[in-house]
Design goal:
- This protein has about 70 residues and is mainly α.
- It has one domain.
- Helix content is about 55%, strand content about 0%.
Amino acid sequence: MAQITKDTIIGDILDIDETTAPIFLSIGMHCLGCPASRGETVEQACAVHGVDADELVKMVNEHIKDK
């Protein structure tokens, strides 16, 4: 199982488990199809969208742990 951190690239997370997309969409990251957004780290994306990176990492890791 992959361990997601604040330094993990958004595109890598989506490649690991595409069912994580709704998590990103729910916090306002509606640009997941954009090549630039797929290249951002979790921390970079959270800074742009005003989201707590630690909380997002926790949510994603909890989601993928059951896969």
